[in-house]
Fold this sequence. Notes:
Layout: H1 11-14, E1 15-24, H2 37-57, E2 60-64, H3 69-78, E3 92-98, E4 104-109, E5 115-121, H4 126-139, H5 141-144, E6 148-149, E7 153-154, E8 166-173, H6 175-179, H7 183-192, E9 195-198, E10 210-215, H8 223-251, H9 253-269, H10 275-291, E11 294-296, H11 305-309, H12 312-326, H13 331-335, H14 337-349, E12 355-357, H15 359-367
Antiparallel strand pairs: 1-5, 1-8, 2-3, 3-4, 4-5, 6-7, 8-10, 9-10, 11-12
Helix pairs in contact: 3-12, 4-8, 9-10, 9-15, 12-14
Amino acid sequence: MARKPVGEANLGLFCTKTQLSLVRNVRGAVFPGRMATRPAKALGIHLGEALRRAAEARGMRAEDVTDDDDLTEIGAIYHGMTAREHRPPGYRLVRLDDAQGEWTVWCELMSANHLTFSVAGTGLDFVAEAERLRAFVDGLDGDLGYASDPTLGYLTAQPMLLGTGFRIRSMVHVGGLAHFGYLRELCNAADAKGAMVELDRTDVTPPGALVIIFNRFSLGFGVREIAERFRAFLVRVSEQETEARWRLFRDEPFVFLDLLTRAKAVLKTALLMSEQEALDLLSDLRLGLTTGAISARKVDPLAPHWFDDATDRVFFRAHGRALRRKHVLPHDVDADPSLRDEALRAEWLRPLANFAFSRELIERADEQ
């Protein structure tokens, strides 16, 4: 068995990515949801130009990427941007990069609010990143003119974001908690700590045992305090998730061995792989790797991009074209985009079958 992590060391094995956002609205215009199509489009274009000038004056490079199809799909998964089918009239997406190309801020115009500034990634220093984003967004106030109230703070179309306009969302892997049926308890704990879990049903494990946790309120607290409280809650939950994973290894080794044996067999032999099946297999492997039940060779299924890249929106754009050149598919399969992607995804995941079971897991399973 691998050494069990303690404290904040659990967070990196639990949290796969985080998006931090600040929403702002401009003075003198109604919220986007109340606007007709023509004025919404006109305001979106106007704000885009104003944002570009303001950002470039501060050393940021600005690019309107609204019509970039690949970036639209990948951005929805990697960075939490609004999917194309949910974009309202007037929507624009602007990418802002610093001069060194080391920091990217995404700004969605005319979504639920006039301006939504976001950063996303796998870093775990939420507080520092939140403060950096706040400083950048506040620096644009003089150019854009944010709507605010001296008592309430920044005015937003979403009541839960009234105040600082700050939203922090983390994608987390809860394979251990889901295995033992603790998703309802997770939701209750989040509610008690001012957070919410995006989950349709607590009695059904979501694909990949992945859920999103986000802060419920923005009023009455500063950006830094919200980020600190949210991170402390995630650390606590990550400790419970780690305990559940080790309990699976310790108390149910035969079940665990069966789970991983099935995963190995499917990864080695499957000809078609759906998005949900791929996410579930990656979840199983993550449980095995983080507990030392298995060891991977040459590949790292713990890499944060694995879950994202397995999704329908991203997979073919990120990997499908290269795989298509390497693997010749039957004509009828290649002609059907859905079947083509499932066949190529099976080939893409096949190297993950090359893992070894730990001696301790096998011995524990034999003794159970």
